Amino acid sequence: MASERSRNPRWETKFDLRGPISSTLKIELKVSRWVALFRSEELVGTAEVRFEELREKQRQAHEEDNDYVAFDLQVVCSEPSASQPSISLRVHRGSTALNSALDTAQTLVSDARDNIQRIKRGPALPNVSTDASDMAPSAQDTAKALRSAKEVKAVYESTLASVEAFVKIVDALAEIHPYAKAAWAALSAGYKVIAAQKKRDDALAELLESMSTALDFVHRFDKNALHEVDKRIILQVAEKTNECALFVEQYCKPESFALRAAKGILSSDGDEIARFKNDFDLMRKNLDTGAILSLTEGLSEVNEDLYNIGEGVKDIARNVDHTVLMVGRTAQMAIVDKLPYAAGASWDPESGCLSDTREVLLAEIMDWIRGTGASDDAEILCLTGVAGSGKTAIAHTVAQRCHKEGILASSFFFNREFEDRNRPDKLLSTMARDLARYPGICSQLSSTLEADPSLATASLSRQFTSLIAEPCRRYTFDSSTVFVLDALDEVNNPPDVLKIFRDDFPKLPRAFRLFATSRDIPDLDIYLSRSAHIRIRTIVLDAGVNLDDLCTYIHWRFGDVAEKLGLGPSWPGQRLKEVFISKAQGLFQWAVAVFQALECAYDPTAELEALLTGLQTGLSPEAKMDEIYTKILQAYGWNNLGFKRDYDLVMGAILAAKSPLSVSALQTLHPGIPNISKLLSRLGALLTGWRYPSQHVQILHLSLRDFLTARASDSAPFYIREKDHGRRLGLLCLTLLNENLKPDTPGAEYLESGSPGIPAVSKDQISEELRYACEFWTAHVLEFEAPAPPELLELLRTFLSARLVLWLEVCASVSTLKGFQRVKIWIQSVFPENIGLLNEDFNTRLSIALISISERLAYMDRREEALLAIQEAVELLRLFEGEPTSFKRNLASSLYDLSTRLSDVGRREDALAASRESVDLRRRLAKDRPAEFNCDLAMSLNNLSNRLSELGQREDALTAIREAVDLYRPLAQDRPPTFNPDLARSLNNLSAHLSELGQREDALAAIREAVDLRRQLAQDCPAAFNPGLAMSLNNLSNHLSELGQREDALAAIREAVDLRWQLAQDRPAAFNPGLAKSLTNLSNRLSDLGQREDALAAIQEAVDLYRPLAQDRPAAFNSNLTMSLNNFSVCLSDLGQREGALAAIREAVDLRRQLARDRPAASNPGLAMFLNNFSVCLSDLGQQEGALAAIREAVDLRRQLAQDHPAAFNPVFADSLYNLSLRLSALDHQEEALAAAKEAVEVYRPLAKEIPAVFKSDLVDALRLLSDLLRDLGQEDDAVATEQETDALNSPGAPGDA
């Protein structure tokens, strides 16, 4: 590359070219330009010259006794050009003798052997115990060994040094050199792959050790070894060494080196290791015993080490194969297991169809599952039928059969009685966890969730795309793959699920089948009936097959009941059996209800006679179910007032509960019932789960719920007023909270502690009933309407005064923060005369608690919950706007926090509005009492400047931060210890805003002042102020770099890194993020000075720091990780490691894309930047189509951003348009390229006019590109006019030159 631009650029680099005389030197002439953070190269042409001609020139220099001979090479241009460039070469006479290289052999080989000895001391893979009890610790040890990145890196670099030494020694032998050089290049490529893949297993060290041993024969090399036979032997060794190096490279290609060795190599018929051994044996036989070069010892070592490789790899096959998989699989599952999972939602073998029943229907379903669909899409079959027709049993059986065939992906049985199973929230996350049994999908899911944990609770559409569709599309399914879903009608909001089935399910591979059941609800017709990939099948009750199946079931159940109750094999007789069958009329659930009653009856025969007597005929299925429920219920002793009272309480609680309660929880909530288990046993004909205290009690069937709460007469003794019992549960929950929620409750009282964040409390740490009360008391209480009972008022009074803050704390610890605003509004509506419930003291306490919880949630990066808390705090504090100054101060402070929380979730306009309101409030306060409130006003102005800058309002942002600095200066002058830190912080921000407007010298002056202030503060109190000093040094480095003061910039960032490194040693959790940030900037500064290897090492360390941070707190640090990966890609590209650069930027794009799905406003700007750079990397590797697709996506994103916020995003929008034009031009889409270039120029023009120091050079580049494209398309006049505009911008005195 030329050092400066010129019409006659000069390269001063010297090259020592060696190779066979038949070799050819090829020179490529390229033009280089920088686009964004990447250098883009365009090929001008090539020139070639044979080594034979170069040797002739060298001889000519000897004969003429000149130091060199110069001659010109004509460049063959890749595109037609008016000018014909040429390249001038100087061929020096050369004086390096063969023996001079040989003289250094002993020294070089000694160094190589020392390197090998260090390799042999490298780490070893831990053995895997066969004892199950030792498996977990062994897996942990293996995981540690596999993560030993620095050790393996040292091993590899040492081995590369050995190969390089060999290259130097045989350098004089021109015929040998290409093989050795190729071996070095292959090993180097393998190292790059391994470094990128992070698989640091010690088997690599073992194989590389043997590779180094193969080179140890050089230790025997003597300077007299010049005979042709010796050269031939060395050539053979070099060839084999090259093959061995390629062998290593092949090992490095798979994701796991060890697995490749175990599965790919040893399983091959033509064993590569054996081939190496045989080849070296043959060379040894051909070696003349009198040869000066002795290979005997070296080759024997090679044979021994290659044998050891074989044995070692076999050990790998035994140990690593399952250990590495186990560790990796365990780590992946640990991430996937964070997805919510609906307990009890899977299929149950005990709940399926009776043997030999439903066979025709089941065969039809299974044939559809196994068959090839009529379309290329995944397909859905929905089985519908009335309540009680046996749909659920069929679903269980289908799931069981698919499971036996190995084709069941997941099953989910909805149930209105269970919170986890009556909402769609956990449907897709449960399905995803079930899919994780496929290793490839597990790996994809873990990567996706690691990058974006918010998917665990995201919308159904986002979850389906990221957790189901995308992983499945990347996996190959050899046979049908089935989802089974039952009772879609029991989902709280069926359309949410049905839309996914209609719109998104076809995105799955065609092997997928979804079998679902549902009652025939209107939503099915609305959402599913008109889709080609969906079939709907209905159970016909009076169909012969259905009647035969029910008859079989009835006979079996009679035998089952008779056996359980000891009634004899012929019970209850043929007559009653026939009557039973005729009365059932095809309804399976009717039969189930009768048999359940018989099992709980004192006299089963009499009970059966009573239930079958007086039944009507010709009823609808629903009316028939109501009839049998009525007969069962009428048999209870309703004249017993105690039984009637307790029935109403317990059955009401079961039906009104928001989530099923266990027997023990029901007992705790109803202490007035002496033995709730006894009562439940009497109601056993109607319930399930009542036999064991810890089981959740549920009603027998959904049709029973509908009957008891809606269709039964309200005068019937068994009628349940569900709403009344929901309210009663609200009173019980409040009573429970008032009595049991105490300061020592797990998850309470942490607001009083000094530790940050929120403690995690498992659900097992608090009782079921207390957990239920915390979760659902608000839902129950909100069902009350005015006039509310006095009891509720007293319970609320106690709760609000003594338990409210504890409740907020526990909710945030156990699950999610529950907002109080709805309850507050409800209290004002229901108890208007008792406004004292929400008095000033209450509002103050609650607002303080919410502010503190918001800060802690923000620390935990639970951004939406943090925003909810501060929003509610602000609404409370607004009530005091007419109150004393202290309340206004609190409101202004909370608005300041609200602005930050809104910005955190990407709501920039709302954040700006909150910040403006905070400034206005504090300005009014400061007007009357400046000495007291100017510092608060300055703080809000600082925040306002940041919010304005985020929206591209740079001039206003600068005005705000200048005012903040002006306010802080007199404060700092009067009280420097108190306000110098604030002044330094504002100067730091002032420098940033000045830089954004191109006022770089002023920006540098401001950051220097900030550094000086913080350096003084740090001298007095380093622990408190070194972090701030490091941050300002970081920014000083950036500003020095902008002004071309690169050495000073490097010195500043080195000091920042040193400070942050020391801080991170003591408190890594607190300061590793800052260290990673400074390392990123250090990498940039090193790269600016051409120290590319050091730059790569620095950014690699930054990436390594960010990865564990992002793993622990992904929402907080995934964004930083993506940025560091972007810079890592740049450094790799600078060193020519283009594949590694592409891998890094691809990872950055994938991570940022996942972030953008959840928070597009906050993440789309970064995604667009990465796509821009992704396009450049693809283009560098010749993947022009992919490069074009990436830059198109970047342009689309930035176009929308620029439309919404032109001041903030027009610069990057223009940048992407420029790159789009380049990509289009590279694919000969000249017309489109011209349009993109024109648009880029139009966007740059006003920017360059407004801030010429920043944007004039960009406009010039865009104009040059436009001129070239115009000329290519024959528009010469326009091209000339564009060039004239370019020349005018570049002329002395043009705006921006100063």
Describe, in plain words, how this protein is organized in 3D:
With 1298 residues, the chain is mainly alpha-helical. It contains 53 helices and 12 strands. The strands form 4 sheets. A 5-stranded parallel beta sheet has the order 7-8-9-6-10, sandwiched between helices. Helix 18 (494-503) links the parallel strand 8 (481-486) and strand 9 (512-518). It is globular. InterPro entries: Apc5_dom (IPR026000), NPHP3-like_N (IPR056884), P-loop_NTPase (IPR027417), TPR-like_helical_dom_sf (IPR011990), TPR_rpt (IPR019734). Residues 364-519 form the Nephrocystin 3-like N-terminal domain. Residues 1277-1298 are annotated as: Disordered. Residues 1277-1286 have a biased composition (Acidic residues). Residues 844-878 form the Anaphase-promoting complex subunit domain.
